[in-house]
TrEMBL record:
CDD domains: RT_LTR (cd01647). One of its GO terms (biological process) is proteolysis. It comes from the Eukaryota. It comes from Vitis vinifera (Grape). Residues 4-86 form the Reverse transcriptase domain. This is Retrovirus-related Pol polyprotein from transposon 17.6. It holds the Pfam family RVT_1. Residues 166-251 form the Reverse transcriptase/retrotransposon-derived protein RNase H-like domain. Keywords: Endonuclease, Hydrolase, Nuclease, Nucleotidyltransferase, Protease, RNA-directed DNA polymerase, Transferase. One of its GO terms (molecular function) is RNA-directed DNA polymerase activity.
Length: 272
């Protein structure tokens, strides 16, 4: 038995967030990266594969091994530790455009959605929904907006009817001028709006550089589990705050002021 190597792989959303607000960025892509790591001579025979000319084995680490990802990530972390997070004014990174202004949606992703014709069957609807999910962090109350899509996919013979054309048009309109996600400034107060509905909870973390200016940092949204749909409005608000706090933990260290239309502070005090 080969023991599992639990060395953590980086989370894409945290990597993208860490680039926001940086003036200079460096993008590197390793050439045949796994093959830069030699196999232990004692383990080479374990990588044997069959060819018409006999058995061959790898002398370098191939793709597909159980711990290949963790081994490669450990090496990259060790090699680039002095450079990661330090020192292209703007570049495409993991499907996003990152620059000193912040994080922007990739024009290619927006174009792919804008040019998508109305789905004619369930498979095309699933493909469109996948494209929209990739843009969720740029759309407020994203789960609410996509609920008709998810409901239609569950039905047999899903088609673009009912609320779908209207919702799709609304999302397209949002993507015509998508927000630029800012990055928090050290020691600057952050603000969070909470919103709840019958089937989803949502939040947006933002900063206020001036009294009349709000810059979003992150949109959070998720569907409610079946048991959660029976919560009261106050309980859902508390759930939204808890869910947002868990999701935004890496970037919400400054004081965060929570804003909601519900008398949430009174509710929390009464529960103590």
């Amino acid at each position: 038995m080969c023991p599992k190597d639990s060395f953590p792989l980086p989370r894409i959303d945290q990597i993208v967030d860490s680039t926001s607000g940086q003036g200079m960025l460096s993008f590197l892509d390793a050439f045949s990266g796994y093959h830069q790591i030699p196999m232990s001579p004692d383990d080479e025979e374990k990588t044997a594969f069959i060819t018409p000319h006999g058995l061959y084995c790898y002398k370098v680490m191939p793709f597909g091994l159980k711990n290949a990802g963790a081994t490669y990530q450990r090496l990259m972390t060790k090699i680039f530790k002095p450079l990661i997070g330090h020192s292209v004014e703007c570049g495409k990174f993991l499907g996003f455009m990152v620059s000193q202004r912040g994080i922007e949606v990739s024009p290619d992703q927006v174009k792919a959605v804008m040019e998508t014709p109305p789905p004619r069957n369930k498979k095309e609807l699933q493909r469109l929904t996948g494209k929209l999910v990739a843009l969720g962090r740029f759309i407020a109350r994203f789960t609410d907006e996509l609920r008709p899509f998810f409901l239609a996919i569950r039905k047999a013979g899903a088609r673009m009817d009912g609320q779908l054309p209207k919702r799709f048009g609304k999302i397209k309109h949002c993507l015509m001028q998508p927000p630029i996600l800012s990055s928090p400034i050290p020691k600057e107060k952050l603000y969070m709006y909470l919103a709840v509905s019958e089937w989803a909870i949502s939040a947006v973390l933002f900063r206020c550089p001036s009294p009349k200016e709000q810059k979003p940092i992150y949109y959070v949204s998720r569907a409610l589990a079946d048991v959660e749909t029976r919560y009261s409005k106050m309980e859902l608000t508390a759930l939204a705050l808890r869910s947002a706090a868990q999701k935004l933990r890496p970037i919400s260290s400054p004081p965060v002021i929570v804003l909601t239309i519900n008398p949430f502070a009174t509710f929390c005090t009464s529960q103590i």
